[in-house]
Amino acid sequence: MKVDIPEGKNPIEYVWGDLVPGIGPAAANFSLAVYAHTTLGLREFEAARLRIAQINGCLFCLDWRTERDGLKVEEEFADAVAKWRTTDVFDARTRLAAEYAERYALHHHCLDEEFWDRMTAHYSQVEIVELTMSLGSWLAFGRLNRVLGLDAMCVLPGH
Q: What's the domain of life for this entry (predicted)?
C-alpha cells in the first residue's frame, strides 16, 4: 500500500504526525531516543540496526548510516552484517548484535539458554534491554515505512 501524501508535504512528517497525531509523535520520539540515548558502541548498534533493515527491506533504513562524533561504519559494513555468521571483521559483541537482531525479528521463540549465555557473557543486562528496545523500534518503524511505501518516498539528506 502507498499512502497518499499531499503535495508539498514530507512523507514521514505527514504520516507520522498529521495522520495519527495521538500516536505518531510519540512513536517518532521513541525512534529518535534510540539514537540520542544509546550507550552501545557504534559497530554493535549498526550491526543490529542494519540486520533489521535487511530483514525489513526498508530502502531508507538500508541506505542510512548512523553517525557518531563524525564517525560512521566503513562502506563494506552492511555486506559483513548480511554475512554475520562467517565474516572475519566482527568482534564477539558485533556478531552477537547481528545475531540477536536476526533472531529477534525472525526466530524470537528460539532465544534459548545457550544464546543467552553467550549474550550475557558480552553484554550487561542494561545493554541487553537497550538493544532489545532498539530492535523493537527498528523492526516496527522500518517495517511500517516499508509496508506503507514511505521508504521509497524519503530521501536522505544530501542525496
A: Bacteria
CA dist 93 and 123 (Å) reads 8
Read off the C-alpha cell for 22: 495521538
**Residue 91 has which C-alpha cell?**
568482534
Residue 154: the pLDDT is: 64
Q: Tell me the one-letter amino acid at 78.
A: A
- Report DSSP letters for 103-146, one per residue: HHHH-GGG--HHHHHHHHHHS-HHHHHHHHHHHHHHHHHHHHHH
Cβ neighbours for 100, distance < 8 A, ≥ 6 positions apart: 48, 115, 119, 131, 135
Nearest to 34 by CA among 130, 149, 156: 130
Q: What are the pLDDT digits (tens) for 123-138? A: 999 999 999 999 999 9
Q: Crossing angle, helix 125-147 and helix 42-56, to 10 degrees?
A: 30
Q: Which residues of the chain have pLDDT under 70?
A: 154-159
